[in-house]
Amino acid sequence: MKLTRKLVLARAKASDLESVKKLNCWCISIFVEIPNIEVLTLSANQISSLEHISSCQHLSELYLRRNSIPSLSELKHLQQLSRLKVLWLAENPCCDAEPHRYRMTVIRNLPGLHKLDNQGEPIHQSLEDNTAVMLVKSEYHLQQKYDQMHHILYYM
Fold first, then answer.
1. By the 8 A CB rule, do 36 and 58 touch?
2. Is 15 exposed, middle or buried (0-12, 13-18, 19+ CB in 10 A)?
3. Domain count, the chain
4. Helices 99-109, 123-154: crossing angle, 10 deg rounding
5. Cross-referenced InterPro entries, in alphabetical order (predicted)?
6. Residue 87, strand partner residues
7. CA neighbours within 13 Å on the CB side: how many for 141?
8. Which domain holds residue 80?
9. Residue 142 φ/ψ, nearest 5 degrees
């Protein structure tokens, strides 16, 4: 079934597309015409591209779990959505990578998010923890280089 203007208005109980604020649906090409949508539930569909969502500038919550999104490069279509605070992307092919790496990639691409994949941990805590781990690793590698140089100079 194709998602039409008439069907959207009926499902959202709205008089025009601009007044639609919340919609649970399965086809996303119509979102170009619904710029004021705030909450989208698109879980458990065969969605593979997020291109049509990029015009939804009022979007604050986006539920996309269990779809067919192949790559985290699709996040580029969400980067201009400054009001987006909640994203549920789990159970997509793009999430099959190393979980921590996946989470960090999403956070870096969408820094305004408050909640990712319905996890209770504050999203910025993940970023801070990752930064701390990277700093410790860098410090460790620097210390190793220093020790090597010291050893070479000492035994010359």
1. yes
2. exposed
3. 2
4. 110
5. Leu-rich_rpt, Leu-rich_rpt_4, LRR_dom_sf
6. 62, 116
7. 6
8. 5-120
9. -65, -40
What CATH number does residue 59 fall under? 3.80.10.10
Residue 26, Cα to own-chain centre: how many angstroms? 19
State whether 65 and 83 are in the same domain: yes
Greatest CA span in the chain, whole angstroms?
A: 84
pLDDT band for position 139 (cuts 50, 70, 90) = low
Quickly tell me which residue has 């996303």 as its tokens: 28
Tell me: do 36 and 66 sit in the same domain.
Answer: yes
Same domain, 80 and 150: no
∠ at Cα 44 (50, 119), nearest 5°? Answer: 80
> Do 36 and 69 fall into the same domain?
yes
The CB density around residue 39, as the number of other CB atoms within 10 Å, is 15
Q: Tens digit of pLDDT for each residue in 64-95? A: 999 999 999 999 999 999 999 999 999 999 99
| Residue 132 pLDDT exceeds 60 | no
In sequence order, which ranges of the chain are alpha helices (DSSP H)? Answer: 5-12, 99-109, 123-154
Task: Answer positive or negative: Cα dihedral of 51, 115, 61, 58.
Answer: negative
- Start-to-end CA distance of the chain, whole Å, equals 78
